[in-house]
Design goal:
The complex is a heterotrimer of chains A (314), B (221) and C (681).
Chain A (H helix, E strand, L loop, with lengths): L3 H31 L9 H11 L2 E4 L4 H20 L15 H21 L3 H32 L4 H10 L6 H17 L18 H4 L5 H26 L10 H28 L8 H22 L1
Helix pairs in contact in A: 1-3, 1-9, 1-10, 2-9, 3-4, 3-9, 4-5, 5-6, 5-7, 5-11, 7-9, 7-11, 9-10
Chain B lengths: L2 H24 L3 H26 L3 H28 L11 H18 L1 H6 L7 H18 L3 H23 L4 H29 L15
Chain C lengths: L4 H21 L4 H29 L3 E9 L2 E7 L1 H29 L5 H19 L3 H19 L6 H33 L9 H6 L4 H19 L8 H7 L2 H27 L4 H23 L4 H28 L3 H36 L10 H4 L1 H14 L6 H14 L7 H33 L16 H19 L1 H7 L2 H7 L4 H4 L19 H21 L4 E4 L17 H4 L1 H7 L4 E9 L10 E9 L1 H22 L6 H18 L2
Antiparallel strand pairs in C: 1-2, 4-5
Helix pairs in contact in C: 1-2, 1-4, 2-3, 2-4, 3-4, 3-10, 3-13, 3-18, 4-5, 4-10, 5-6, 5-10, 6-8, 6-9, 8-10, 9-10, 9-12, 10-12, 10-13, 11-12, 11-17, 12-13, 12-16, 12-17, 13-15, 13-16, 13-18, 13-20, 15-17, 15-18, 16-18
Chain lengths: 314, 221, 681
Amino acid sequence: MNFYPFISEILQIGIVLSIAPAFAGWVRMVKCWFQGRTSPSLFQPYRDIRKLFAKDVVLAENASWIFRFTPYLVFGTTVLAGGIIPMLTTDLPLSAAADVIVLVALFAIARFFTALAGMDIGTAFGGMGSSREMTIASLAEPAMLMAIFTISLAARSTSLSQIVQVMYSGQSVLRPSIAFAFLAFVLISLAETGRIPVDNPATHLELTMIHEAMILEYSGRHLALIEWAGMMKLTLFMALGAVLFFPWGIDVSGSASGGVFAFFFLLLKLAASGVILVLIETGLAKMRLFRLTEFLGSAFLMATLGMLSFFILE
Amino acid sequence: MNLHIAAQINSFLAALVLLTAFGMLTQKRIYGLIHLFAWQGLFLSLNTAVVGFVAGKHHLYISSVLTLSLKVVLLPYILHVLINRLRIRKEVETVVNIPMTMMIGIALVIFSYHLTAPIRELSTLITRSTLAIALATVMIGLLMMITRRHAVTQIIGFLALENGLFFAATSATYGMPLVVELGVALDVLIAAFIFGIFFFHIHTAFDSLDVEQMAKLKESD
Amino acid sequence: MTLNPMNLAGGAISLLLAMAVLALFLHRNQRLLNTLGFIAAAAASLAATAAGVWVVGGNGTSRAVMSIGLPDLPFHLRLDPLAGFFMTVVGLLAFIVSIYSIGYVKGIMRQRPITRLVIFYALFLAGMFMVIIADDALFFLVSWEIMAAASYFLVLFEDERVENRRAAYLYIVVAHVGAIAILLSFGVMSGLATGFEGFHGFTFDAMRQAQFPAAWATAAFLLALFGFGAKAGVIPLHVWLPEAHPVAPSNVSALMSGVMLKTAIYGMVRVTFDLIRVFPWWWGTIVLVLGLISAVMGVLYALMQHDLKRLLAYHSVENIGIILIGIGLAMIFRSFDFPLLAALALTAGLYHTLNHAIFKGLLFMGAGSVLHATHERNMDEMGGLIHHMPWTAALFLVGCIAISGLPPFNGFVSEWLTFQAFLLSPSLPSPLMKLLIPMGAALLALTAALAAACFVKAFGVTFLGHWRGHNNPHIHEADWCMMLGMIMAAALCLVFGILPTLVIDWMDNVPEQLVGTRMGTTAGAFGWMWLTPVARERASYSGPLVFLVTLSVIVIAYLLLHVRAGSIKRVPLWDCGFEKVTARMQYTSAAFSMPIRRIFGFLFSIREQVKLNPAAAHRTVPGRMQYTLRIRDRFWGWLYRPIIDISFWMSRRVGRLQQGRIQAYLIYSFVTIIVLLIFMR
C-alpha cells in the first residue's frame, strides 16, 4: 500500500499547526512596519501560547461543561479543516472525506460552540459577542455559498482536491467568474476571520469587540487552544485563497521533491497574502455593525456577478 | 493575437464594465461616482480597440480614441468643475436602501440575459455574449437615475446609460458608422453643457439640487 | 395469520383503536391508564415501524380491500415503498414519544384526568397510520378527518384558557379549509378518471391509469398543494401552527410538529409523483419558491420569539420549507427528464423528512421537560438550567446542533444533499432556471445560518447563564421514561448523521418507485463509509471519518493537556472587573436577536417603544423605563383580516334571510314550490 499520501497528510497537519503562529506573527510584523512602529519578534506568538499553556485555568463558578469543552472542539475542528485543504499536494486522503461545504460547516460548528460558551457565564459581554457573531455569520453564509457555487461551476465539483486540480490545469488566465469569486472570497475571509473592517482583533473596547467578547472569560490552556485555533483559522483561509485561485506550485505528481517545492511556494504565497491583508487592514477603518450589511451584500454581489458571468460570458 | 485570447479579453473587459456599473449603483460619494464613470469609459475604449483589432474595422479605433477623450477626460473634468462651483455636498442620497438596489440590479442582469438569449443563438460575432452585459448596463443606468435624489448623480446615470448603448452597438454590430458615432458624441457633449446650465438655474431657484424639491412645482397640493 | 407488512400495519391500527375504546373503561385508575395506554401506543408504533422498514427494504407492494365503508365503495389499502417510508417516519417518532409520554403525562395526571388525552392520542396515531396506508380517496379523507379531529381535541386538552380555545379554533378552521381543497382535488382527479360517469374513479389505482388533460391536472395539483400546504404549514397558510403547537401538551406537540406535518408532505408527494405523474416544469418551480419563502420567513419569525415552544413551531415551518425545496427540485429535474438528479433531490427531501421528525421530536421533548420542571414557557424567565437538568440540557443540545445543520448529526447530511442537488442545476437546459436556482441555494444557506443563530439563542437563554426569573422554583431533572425517549431520539440523530449510506441504501426503493432511478448504486459506490451522490470526483462526504478524526484530536489534546494536571480554580465571574453583575444584565432573547431584527425587520410590522418616566430629581437621571416590542405577522393584515372581514360581511348579508317571522318562512316554501313546478313540468 502506498503510504505516501498518509505521510503527506500527517505532515500537512503538522505544518499547519506549526506555522500558524508564525503567520500571525508575520501579519503583526508587517502591520507594525506599515504603521512605523517597532514590531515584536516573528516568534512571539509561540512564546505567548507556551506561556498560556503553563498557566493555571481560572473558571467562573457557574461555568458549565460546555465552557470547558468548547476550546477542545474548536481546536479539533480547525485541525481537521487543516487536514482537508490540499496545500502541498492534491493527493490528500482526508480531502475525500469532506468537500468545501463540509469545510464551511466545520467552521460553523466551531462558531456555534464559541457562541454558546460566550453565553455560558452569564455576562452581557458574552451575549453581545455571540449575538453579533451569529448575525455576521448569517450574512456571510449566502455570499460564501455563492462563491463556492461559482467555483464549483468552473471545476464541476465541490471536492477540494478536484477543484485545485482543475484550476491547476486550466489554460484560461482571465476568467471573469473566477476573478469575481476571488474578490468575494477576500471580503468573506475578512468577515470570517474577524479582521478589520468587520472586527478588530486587537481591541479591548466593549463596543468594538465581537470575537474577543465571546472568549473574554477564558484563561490558561483553554485560552491557548482558542488562540492557536484562531491563528490556524486565519492561516487556513489565506491558504485556501492561495490554493484555490493561485494553485501554481502545488504538487500534482505525488513525489517528495514536488512536496518540498510546494512547501516553499506555500510559504511564499502566505507571506504575500499576509502583506495584502495588512494593506487592506491599514487602508480601511472598522465599520459600524449595521454597515456590515452593505459590506457583506457587496460580497454577495461579487459572487453573484461571478456566477452570472460564468453563464453569460463563458 | 488570436481569436481566443481576444474573446477572453473582451469578456474580461465586459465584466469590468458591469462591475463599474454596479459600483456606481452602490457608491455613496460623488467623487467616487465620477471616478468610477471614468474607469467605465476607460474599459469601454479598451474594449472597442480590441474589437476593432480583431474584426479589422479600423473606424473603431477612432471611436475608441473619441470615447477615451470624451468620457475619460473631458466629461469627468466638467463634472468636477460643476461640483466645485456649486459647492455640493459630497454624499449621495438614495430613495431605496443600498442592498435593495443591488438585488434589483442583479434581477435586471438576469432579465437582460434572458432577453438576449435568441440573439445569442443567431449571431456570428465574437462579441455576441457581451450584448447581455450591455443591455444590463443600460438598465442599471436607468435604475441609477430612478433611485437617486441628487441632480448631478442623475446625470451620471444618464451618461452611464449612454455608455451601455455604445457598448451594445459594439457588441451587436461591431459599432455604428463613424458619422453616427461622431454625432452621438457631439450630442452627449452638448447635453452635458445644457445640464450644467440647468443646474445653475435649479440651484438658484431652490437653493439645493435635490430633485425632490421640484415636487413643489405641482399645481395642486 | 401470516406475518407480512400489511398485517403488521393493520394490527397496529387495530391495537390503537382498541386502546381508544378500552380507555373509556379505565377512567377510574389513572395510573394504569397512563402506563397501559402509552405502552400499547408504543407497541403499535413499533409494529408499524417494522412494517414500514420491511416494505421499503424488501420492495414488495401489498394491497388489501376492506368491506367497511359505504356500500359499493369499500376501503382500499396499499403499502408500497413510499407509504412504507412514511410509516417508518411516523412509527419511529410515535414509538419514542409514547415512551416519553409515560413519564410526561404522570406530571399532567396530578392536575386533571388524562382519559381524554389517552383516547385521542390513540385515535390520532391510528388516523395518521390510516392516512398513509389509504389507497382510495374516501378512506384517505375519512382518515384525514380522524387525524384532524383527534388532534383538535388534543390541542384543546387544557381548555380552561381562552387563548387555548382560540388557538384550537383557528387550527380546526384552517384544517377544514385545507380538507375541502383536498376533497376537490380528489374529486377532479376521480371525475376525470371515469369521464365524470360512475363512482369507481375514486380509487387511486383508477387515478393512476387516467390521462389528465393539462388544465385539469393543473387544477388538481393546485388544489392539492393548497390543501396539503395548509396542513403542512407552508407560508402563507401557516398561521395556525404557532398558535396550536405551543398550547398542546408537549408530547402531542412533538407528534404534531414531527409527524403530522409529514403526512401532508406524503399527500403532496403521492398526488404529484404517483397519481398525476406527468407535469410541466413550472409546478416544481412553484413548490421550490414556496419552500424558499417558508424557509426564510419561518426562521426569521422564529428568531423573534421568546416563547420556547412557539420558536420550535416556527422552526417546523422553516423545515417544511426545506423539505419542499428538495421536492420542488426533484419535480423540476423530473420534468426536464433527469432521473438521477431527480432521485438525488427526492432523497434529500425525504431524508430531511426523517431527520426533522427525529430532531424536532427531540427538541419538543426537551421543551416538555423544561416546562414540566419550571412551569414556564417564556425563555426570558429561565436560565442556568444546565446545572439543574444536565441530561436534558445535553440532549436538547444534540437537537439544537442537528436542526442547525451542523456535522456530525443528521440535519447536516440532508442539507448537504440538498446543496448538492442545487449545485447540479447547471445541467438544466433552460437558461432562466440556471440563473435563478443558485439564488435559491444562497437563500437556503441564509436559512441554515439563521437557524444556527436562533438555536444559539434558544439554548443559551434557556439553559446557560443565570436564572433570570423572580422566584426560585425547585427544578428537578426529568424522570427516566422521559429521559429514555430523548436518549433514543438523540442516538438516532447521531446514527443517521454518521451512517447516511445505510439509510440511503435502505430507502432507495422509494425514488425507484417515484422517478424510476435508484441512487444507492452511486451513493454507496465506495463502500459504506463514503457518501458520493453522483460521482466520487464530484463530491464526497464521509460521516464516520469526520466524526472520528475530530473526536481523536479532541481526545489527544485533552489527554496531553491533562497529563500535567494543572489545577482549575473556581472564582466569581470576571466580566472585565465589573463587580455589580446581576442576573438581569444578561442577554434576553429579544436582545440576542436585535441585530437580525434591525436588518430583516422590514419583513414584519415591528413597533418598538421606549417610554422613560424620569425620576423627579433631574431630566438626565433615568427613572423607570418601559420597553414594549410588538412584532406582528404581516400576513394577518394582508391575507387573513380581509378574508375574515369579507366572510363576516357575507354571512351578515345571508343572515338577513333568517327573519324570525313565520310569514317569511312560509313565503320561502311557497316560492320554492312555484319555481319547482315551473321548471319540472
